[in-house]
Structure formats: structure tokens, C-alpha cells
Amino acid sequence: MILDIEKLLKFIMESLEKRLDFDRGMVMLANKQKDSLVYTVGYGHNPRDESYLKNIKFHLDNPLSKGTAVDVFRKQKPVLINDVSEIESDLSAKSLDFVRAMGSQAFICVPIIYKGESMGVLIVDNVQSKKPLSQTDMSLLMGIAPQIGISINNAIAYRKIKESEERFRSLSENAPDIIYTLGINGEFTYINPAIEPNLGYRPDEIVGKYFVDVTTKEDVSKYIRAFKQVRDQKQTLKEEIGILIHKDGTERYFSISGAPNFDSEGNFIGLVGIFKNLTDIRRSEMELKRSLEKLQLAMSSTIDAISMIVESRDPYTAGHQRRVAKLAVAIAQELGLSEERIELIRMGGLIHDIGKIYIPASILTKPSKLGDLEFAMMRSHPTVGYKILNKVDFIPVIVDIVHQHHERIDGSGYPLGISGDDIFLESKIVAVADTVEAMASNRPYRPARGIAFALEEIRKQRGFTLDALVVDACLRLFEEKSFTFKLDSEETTDVNAYWV
């Protein structure tokens, strides 16, 4: 099969010259813009005529154009002329010049059509033979023209495929990412040169091997399932992060994608996809994660130290912040918060009373009622804590917990007097935990009131001063899930353990 257009048309013209009784023949095709008919190939023309034909074109975009070839192209109807002189009056000056220059006495012009669209015209004429052209001749050419149209279309389609393949190959050969195709059994049928800088193999070392040959043993079953999913469900494999093995045996991280590949009849013939090297990014992420873990550990240790310093100044409330943090974490978990938010709540709970470090121990441990000045100083500890943490650019959520843990949803709290959604959820959680722990434990000015009393109090304040959802979560922990305040470091003989 000839699929080059020029070679194809030349072959057609040679066949017409040998088998048909016409002096000359030519094919004129519309250009890409479909605004002109241009000479493409012919037979029987002398060099002068050939040169003339190559330099002339008939305009399809000019509505006043009256040439026979243009008319046949537009109307898709053939024309048979046995005496050119009979139609000279109907021709434009340009068309008349063309007929006279070519010396035509009689001609047939038929449209070349494919799927209802005009592609060009086929013209034959006699300049030497006196034999008149007939309807039979025209019918014969009308049978040939559609085959020319089909052949031209196939050649155009083939050329487009080849051009597409060349573009793909050019892009593939120069792409930094690994581009591959797999056969129906998961074997590599093509892989671009990017395989070598990324995985150390030459393309010829990989083609013929199976995809699972370059994956870890742990991932084999996963990729077999993925391949079957693409094959059976005709679904695209989207950005699967996986490990491929370098030629030197080291593991490399890749983003792996793939799509089903079909032949011209729609049959599945494998998979085509891309491996994008993420190794450097992954290593950076892991290094960053390790750094963040170290930072978080250091932060946690710092917060623990601050918590111990605060509590060491008040023996009555020793362990208070840790117990508040424990209950606050449990409430946050009950509410389904993320691990990141829960950790911030834990750290905030551990240092929520950091502002008390500025309050004299005599006030913190005073067994009798506080005076107005002493009470005002005690109520200042959220603001003092806020200022301490702000100076060292502490984590904002933790700063807010310290600042807001005595705020109430009806606006009756302190130091800001804010209400409702202006109070962060993290602060509302620590507020409930702080309230329960404070009422249930010993204080310098009163003995412990017990868990039952504390729970009844928050039940009364539910939806008024304390957030309803937070209170409900706290009640479930104690009444349904046997929550205990006891810390891992506390023995059962602890003086405060009786209310656990």
C-alpha cells in the first residue's frame, strides 16, 4: 500500500495513462486553507505546460470565480465538454486563458469527494485525438474519483499518524521523565532514554523485562492489581507514589501514572505512562519531617519544663496542668479533631497557667479569701501568659489557649470578655477540662469537691458559659468510657487519687 500522497497520486496517474484512452490527465487538490485549487500531479503534459500548471491556482474563496474546475469542486457535479468554444462565453478571463494555454479541445472534470467533502478534481482531456468524449468515459471517471478520495484520505491519515509518532518520539527522546509502554502481559515494549539517568539502565536493558522486575517485592502485588484494573476496567492509573529499584540496587521514589493503550480496532494492547522521579523531593520531605520531629520534641520538652516550673510554685495544684492536658486531649479525640490539633491542645493545656509564674507564691497558696488586689492579680495570669509567649513568637494556637482558657461563650469570662465563635475551639476544650479538674481537686481554700460535683456543674453550664459539644464529649468520657485523671507518673497512694 502506497501511503505517501505524492507517490500515491503519481502511481494513480501512471495507471490512468496506461489503461485509459485520454491524451492527458491531472489532479488538482484544495490546499490546506481550502481557499485554492492547485495542480498536484498529471500526465501527458510537455515541460512548458507542466511549468505553467505548477504556477497557477484557482481561487475557491472568490464567489465571482467562474472556472469549470472551481464550479465542479463547489457543486460536486461532473462536467463533460466536447467543444470548448461552446462554453468560452461562460468562462472568466483567467479560466479562458487557462483553456487556451493548455490547448484543450474537449475535457471531462469530475469531483474528488470523501465523506461528502470535496478534496479536489480529476481532469482528463484530448488535444490530439479526434475521438469525442462520452458519458461512458465520464461514468468511468466518476467511479475512479471516489477511490482516489479514499486513497488520499488514507495517505493523509497515515501522514498525520507518522507526524504524531515523530512528535511523540521527539518529545519522548528528550523528556526528563521516563515514558514507557507495557504489553498485555506487563512487559516493557518501549522506554525512553530518560531511564538511564533516572534508574541506571539503557532502554535495551529494560525492553522485554516486566514492570515488576524493577519494583520492590512488597509492591509487586500492588502493581499487578493496578495493571489488571487498567486492563479490565479501562481506567487510568493516576499519580501512584511508589518505589522503583535503580540498577545499583538502591530505592528511588517515583510518581507512577498510566493509561490503557488500544489499537485501531479498540483492542487493549497494553499501557502507556510516565515515571516521574520524586527521589530528591522525597528525601527533602523526609529530612524536613525528621527536623520537624526534632523541633516538636524540643518544643514538647520545653513545654514540659515550663509546666513543671509553674506547678512547683504551688504544691496544691501540682499536676493540675498535666491533668488538664490529659482531659483536653481526650475531649479533642472524642470530637474527632486531627492529630495536629490534638497535639497543640496537649501543649496548650500543659502551660495554660504559665502566667501564674508572675504571681507571688503567697497568693497562690493563700488558704483564705483573696483581697481585691490579690484577686485582680490572679485574674491577670491569662494576659501575663499571653505576653510571655508572644515575646518569644510561640505557636499561635497555644498562645490563644493560654489567653482564652478563662473566656466563656456568654461573654462573662476574662480577660477579653469575648463570646461564642470568637473563642477558639481549642480554648473552649481547655476551659472545660480546666473547670472539671479544678473543682475535682484540692485547693488551698477548699477541699476537693469530687468528679460527680464537677460533672454536674458543667452539665448546668452546658450551652450557657461552656460550649455544649465540648461538655457533651467530656461527660461521655467520664460516664461512658471510664476516663481517669490519674497520670502515668502518679501512684495509687497519691493524695489526690481518691477522686479519680
Task: Provide the descriptors you would attach to this structure in a database record.
6-stranded antiparallel sheet; Beta-Lactamase; 500 residues; Hypothetical protein af1432; alpha+beta
Q: Can you characterise this structure?
A:
The chain is of the alpha+beta class and 500 residues long. It has 3 domains: 5-167, GAF domain (Beta-Lactamase, 2-Layer Sandwich); 175-277, PAS domain (Beta-Lactamase, 2-Layer Sandwich); 284-499, Hypothetical protein af1432, CATH 1.10.3210.10. The protein has 18 helices and 11 strands. It has helices at 5-19, 47-54, 68-75, 93-102, 135-174, 195-199, 203-206, 220-233, 279-312, 320-334, 339-350, 361-364, 372-379, 381-391, 396-404, 425-440, 451-461, 468-479, and strands at residues 24-30, 36-43, 57-59, 79-81, 106-114, 117-126, 178-182, 188-191, 237-245, 251-262, 268-277. The strands form 2 sheets. Strands 3-2-1-6-5-4 form a 6-stranded antiparallel β-sheet, sandwiched between helices. It has a 5-stranded antiparallel β-sheet with strand order 8-7-11-10-9, with helices on both faces. Helix 10 (320-334) runs antiparallel to helix 11, helix 10 packs across helix 18 and helix 11 crosses helix 15 (396-404). Mean pLDDT is 86; it is low at 490-500.
